[in-house]
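User: Second chain of the day. Same drill as before.
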Amino acid sequence: MNKTIIARTAAEMEEIGANLAPTIADGMVVSLIGPLGSGKTTLIKGLARGLLVTDIVVSPSYLLAREYQGRIPLHHIDAYRVTTLGELAEVGLDELLPPTSGVTAVEWPSRVEGIVDLSDIIIKIELLDDQARRVQISGN
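Assistant: Same format as last time:
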């Protein structure tokens, strides 16, 4: 899969995630790469909706990870403050890379060596202006 989409609203970012959900299977890792405020968490909200998650999805910035139940479990990791896989292992999050059950969506995967290499799907988000984002999706 190689796709580029321009999103101009938060609703469009969510829709990209929702449309990606049917392609998600147990054991997959999805990496989201983009600057602060680019819409990574918003896209994951859509992914969660597409996976039939009914909980409100919020950024796990201070907790490092959150888990949601849906068609398959969704593990949401924010690696912004992490620099090694060892740090993730210290808090038990290395078990989510790759997950034994569900899908793991990782924001800031490039901050932790090795995560991008584990990814089945890589989503790169580029700010075009205050509203528009270029979303490039690649992977299996």
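The chain is about 25% helix and 30% strand.

User: Great, on to the next one.
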